[in-house]
From TrEMBL:
Sequence segments annotated as region (Disordered): 87-123
Protein's UniProt keywords contain DNA damage: yes
A Pfam family the protein falls into: DNA_binding_1
Entry keyword set: DNA damage, DNA-binding
Organism: Streptomyces antnestii
Start-end of Basic and acidic residues biased regions: 99-123
Any GO MF annotation of the entry: catalytic activity
SUPFAM superfamilies in the record: Methylated DNA-protein cysteine methyltransferase, C-terminal domain
Protein name as annotated: DNA-binding protein
């Protein structure tokens, strides 16, 4: 907790948060990485730590590109995320009639970015 309050007072992000946000910025438009993918890319932390960083500091980066592994849209941010996904052409799966709000999910097989394809144009 003191790390967060220190970071807020100094206006600087904790080092781990900076690294997570840098990865989020590398993800090409129309592609996504899961919270676990980001942690694996960094070889540090886990999905929960990445999610915490995104919740606290992710507003300045393409937050909609760091997602849950099941492709379900971030609760409370579904409509804003959908605007981005549609604008970027992110692959989606049609919502089933039983799904909450009939919102589509991300097509993780097609949308998931492995961190390599297209990386040279985003460095």
């Amino acid at each position: 907790m003191s790390e967060e309050s220190d970071a807020g007072a100094a206006g600087e992000l904790p080092e781990y948060a900076e690294r997570v946000l840098e990865v989020a910025e590398l993800i090409p438009p129309g592609r996504v990485m899961t919270y676990g993918d980001v942690a694996e890319w960094l070889d540090e932390g886990g999905p929960r730590q990445v999610g915490r960083v995104m919740a606290l500091y992710g507003g300045a980066v393409p937050w909609w590109r760091v997602v849950r592994s099941d492709g379900v849209l971030l609760p409370g941010h579904e409509l804003r995320a959908m605007e981005h996904y549609r604008a970027e052409g992110t692959p989606l799966r049609q919502a089933s009639r039983a799904s909450d709000g009939h919102l589509p999910r991300l097509d993780m097989r097609r949308a998931r970015w492995d961190g390599e394809e297209g990386a040279e144009s985003h460095t």
